[in-house]
Amino acid sequence: MWWLRGSRTARRSAVALLAAAALALTGCGGDAGSGGGDDRTLTVWIMEGTNPDAEPFFSELSAAFTERTGATLDVQFVQWASAHDRFITAIAGGTTPDVAEVGTTWVAEFADAGALVDLEPRVQEAGLADGLVDGLVEAGTIGDGLYGMPWYAGVRSIVYRTDVFAELGLQPPTTWDELVAVGQRIKQARPDLLPLPIAGDNEFIVYPFLWGAGGEVATRNGDTWVSGVDSPQAREGIQFYADLALVHGFSTPAAATWRETDVRDAFTKGQAAMIFSGSWTPKAILEAAPDLEGKIGAFPIPGRDGGLAPSVLGGSLLSIFETSDDQDLAWQLVEMMSTGEFAAKWAQESSYFPGTTALLAEAAQSSDPLVAPFARQMAESGRSVPVTPAFGQIQGKKTIAAMMRSILTGEATVEEATATAAAEMNQIFASGA
């Protein structure tokens, strides 16, 4: 549709015009849709940046929603960087939207503030409860309520150079010992490559090893949370992860301060054989390095002795706000976006995975070597970080990233660094933030 290729402002205007035109056509048709002549409007906040060009999707969604319900959508795009503060301001002023995309780590905070509708009864009534991805349900669940409907998520696995593996006769590892063995072989045979750079400023990659060794990031103890990063099991997993750099030499000292994007840049420049990577990243890698087309694949982060290590789900839920004047209509939109045709379409266009097990199972059967391994990791071992408002503050202070940087730079041992991190986490938990 050529008219959607203009400026972002023009395209957004087109979204509204299309929705209005659909409403006019519905009204002219008399009984088309379920509410011909309906003047209801839902305000919807969508985070900007997940799908680089989301306007065509929401144009189609708006038209379909109008046809189905007679109501219109006022879709507003919000920058991720400013979204949290905008939500807080809106909650305080009672000016929240009807429906919004909410990051998985924000749901607990907004639900705790009394701003979100419990969707559990509607999910049960619609017969959807058994078909949602567990890790996303976990992220949206507070107590007995579900305050965010799973919409989409990504997960981190390992992207690797298939040409290098073929050259050296290597197979993707299926245990931690095999991961070390593969890295050692690459280090010996290809000294021009980093086998597996370890980014110090990336908390999400240490969790598969912390969890994989039987540890917990934090556990609930009655009404309070307690850090688990200093437990023997957690320390064992953290030590293994750190030793990939410190003992086995698969990384570079400079990576102790790297972010996830720095690791990706090293890979696109041909400097690394394997990287921990989000499922949304391969597309960007190939855009930045077209010469890697056909030379990269992915495999799940393996479990210690087999199977898959738990990996953090990062994504969004769809929430209905208590201020909505028509929560039943809002639920119709949430269900429409999170299941069926539009859930599948959004996943395809955004390079993320849908929040239903049926659609995720389809992705896991994909013949695309850059899709199926990530889908399998998400389906079998996707997991949420602790669901508590306080954990957002811990992430804001970069407590875990600081812990890893101190270990990787040699400033602290695993025992010292985890003790410091646990103390800071427990102070935040105790404050009731």
Broad CATH class of the largest domain: Alpha Beta
CATH superfamily of the largest domain: Periplasmic binding protein-like II
Uncertain regions spanning at least 5 consecutive residues = 1-36
**Annotated CATH topology of the largest domain:** D-Maltodextrin-Binding Protein, domain 2
How would you name the oligomeric state of the polypeptide chains in this document?
Answer: single chain
Characterize the overall form: globular
**Biggest sheet statistics:** 9 strands, mixed
Strand tally, please? Answer: 13
Looking at the overall shape, the CATH architecture of the largest domain is 3-Layer(aba) Sandwich
Number of domains: 2
* Count of discrete alpha- or pi-helical segments spanning 4 or more residues: 19
Rg from alpha-carbon coordinates: 23 Å
Q: Provide mean pLDDT, rounded.
A: 90
- The percent range for strand residues is 15-25%
Quick overview of this protein structure:
With 433 residues, the chain is α+β, with helices and mostly antiparallel strands. 47% of the residues lie in helices and 16% in strands. Strands 1, 2, 3, 6, 9, 10, 11, 12 and 13 form a nine-stranded mixed beta sheet that branches.
